[in-house]
Amino acid sequence: MRAIGVDVGGTFTDLALWDDARGALAVFKLPSVPHDPALGILEGLRTLAAREGVDAETLTFVAHGTTVATNALLEGKGARTGLVTTRGFRDLLEIARQKRPHLYDLQADKPAPLVARFLRCEVGERLAWDGSVVEKLSLDDVREALDGLRAEDIEALAVCFLYSFVDPTHERLVEAEIRARCPGVFVSLSAEVSPEFREYERLSTTVINAYLGPLVSRYLQRFGEEVGRLGIPHPPYVNQSNGGIISVAAAAAQPVRTLLSGPSAGVMGAAWVSAAAGIGSIITFDMGGTSTDVARVENGRPVIGAQRTIAGHPVRIPSLEIETVGAGGGSIAWVDSGGALRVGPQSAGAHPGPACYGRGGTAPTVTDANVVLGRLSATQLLDGRMAVRRELAEQAIAGLAAQLGTSPVEAARGIVSVVQTNMLGAIRVVSVRKGYDPRGYTLVAFGGAGPLHAAALARDLGIERVLVPPAPGILCALGLLVAPLRLDLVRTRLALLDAMTAAELAQGFENLEHQAGTWLDTENVPRSRRRLARAFDMRYVGQNFELTVEAPADDLRAAFLREHERVYGYAAPDEPVQVVALRLTAFGDRELPPRPALPAAATADPKEARIGERAAYFEDVRDFLTTPVYRRERLRAGHRLHGPAIVEQMDSTTVILGGQQAVVDEGANLVLHVGTA
User: Taking the model in full, what pTM does it have?
Assistant: First the structure.
């Protein structure tokens, strides 16, 4: 097996190549190309393959984590989209749930609907809750609506009828009319995208899928074609928000599934690395050049939610519960109207990048602050492929310091302090706010900037252990190599649990399992690598929110009561319980790379890995200290480093604070033992 994972971030594009024949993992990092991410990917593929002496024809697997869909939604750069819906529901996109974005902010603006009102068309049709036809679909209404929308030069069409999740016949009839009357228009049916009850969330998800469809499908089609031109014989895969991968064709049909494509790959990589190290419960900390993503993993399994909100729009698609903040190495520091120092969410990105890159950037960034404080190399990054100019970082920070009326060092300290406060807030969202004590977890630090800040964050959170993987800056790309193929299916079924027999519960999964089998056949997954996982959405009668309960070996009611007590702190055994939906997840497990095995060191003293020293600023002493610098690749299993210390490698830099220790384990991980604040 020769497999490549490619993750495209806002600042860098990362590649990981696993060569089974040599038993070796090779990594590569290069600046992203924001205006055309595919250019950076193709350059990286060519460069890495040539460097490692690998012929493209021998590559058996290519997977891609992308932010194209996310950026298009955040920046409002999707397609001109129309909507066909049930009569009376034209304004549902704006009525929504009649909630203010922020309860006590009377001036808060809601996001503009992705479909303008004049492009939303109602047609005559209506099903009852049980799927019986109340009003037959009016094809005359449909044709009139489509002719009007065609005149408006729409690129995509969303179709969402009230009870189509029970019976999709009416939506499929509309699809046939669209294909005939509006050829070339991207079509998004709610019965395919999100076949669940709750009409607003289903409508929102269907519209987002249509809005993203033309842009993402064109990008993925081109990506697939270019990969083929390189000589790679197998079509590539794309990562999904749920942490699994799907074919390019499937992702192009439902781009809404890729909204968290990039961040979820890092969580999967972190879960794999930590499980191999014998660590099950972790908090992932992925700090890149543009943003920071954090998530929670319980017993080796990333936490998944059925719904989330992105840019103010609800998305009803299973996705990893990832919290994102605009805090990265390229985040720009600025002074607000009240004279307070702020950092982000604006980023210098890949071009021009931080001032110290010497590419024309002049705004002070987190990276510039770390260079001024001596935490980052003041001469080069990426093993010398990227020059760093300290004097440019100092100039940028000095300009900010003048606005604040302080010294450049104090301004740099302030930047680091503010960005770490922002990241602390994100970690608390996925832990403390959900009732989980972060002190019971290991912090897995990755991304190009994650290991720079992890030791301080762990100390402030009371986390006792930090794990830095062997290639932290490339972990998202590695995550693409270990992620399974995955498809999530759901069927709404409202029924009292006590009124259903075990046979009736099982019967409800038959159609879902048939769909899963067909998909696994299409993806050519061997039967020995197939897995199906059943789950139920359940609640007490009268509740408005559900819990997802994995199908238990014993009593389903008892399993629901246990989960309810775990989440809410209580259970009501005598209350009637309702099944709301059946969920089935199909997995196609892939052959995984073996865990890295690092030779043992002769002694615990890492002197052979020491490459020099430099002055670096540490908050505990509020001064610069002469700090030893070590080369990560020279460390061996059993080496023990005492802080303060700095560990450099091609893709990242790790800072170890005074009073902390770091041990290299047999899997080449750097494990920091943290003293709390």
Answer: 0.91
